[in-house]
Amino acid sequence: MNQQAPDEHPDVILCPDGPMLLRGEHVIEDEDGKEHSTTRPVSAVCRCGASGIKPWCDGTHKTMRKRPGR
Ligand code: FES
Asked: Ligand 1 test: best mutation among 46, 53, 63, most atoms within 8 Å of CB?
């Protein structure tokens, strides 16, 4: 059962076969240890590895084959 109040939202949302959405200010560390900060209301972090603007999602995941069972 969802106990969240209607005006509350999670800070992190994992999109199936897509990015991780972050709400509010965050600092992301990429695979080289470089930090990327964001202050956008919502930021999308690439989880597929194919983005041309890593660590951020550029929508490339939409062109990739979905995982079986999805
Ligand atoms: S998750 Fe969107 S480009 Fe990787």
From this structure: 46
E strands of the chain, at which residues?
12-14, 20-23, 26-29, 35-38, 42-45
What is the sign of the dihedral through the CA atoms of 22, 9, 1 and 67? negative
Q: Is residue 44 part of a domain?
A: yes
Q: Using the mean position of ligand 1's atoms as its centre, give its distance from the Cα of residue 4 in Å.
A: 28
- Residue range of the domain that includes 38: 12-63
Pocket of ligand 1, beta carbon within 6 A: 18-19, 46-48, 50-51, 57-61
- Give the residues of the chain that fall short of pLDDT 50: 1-2
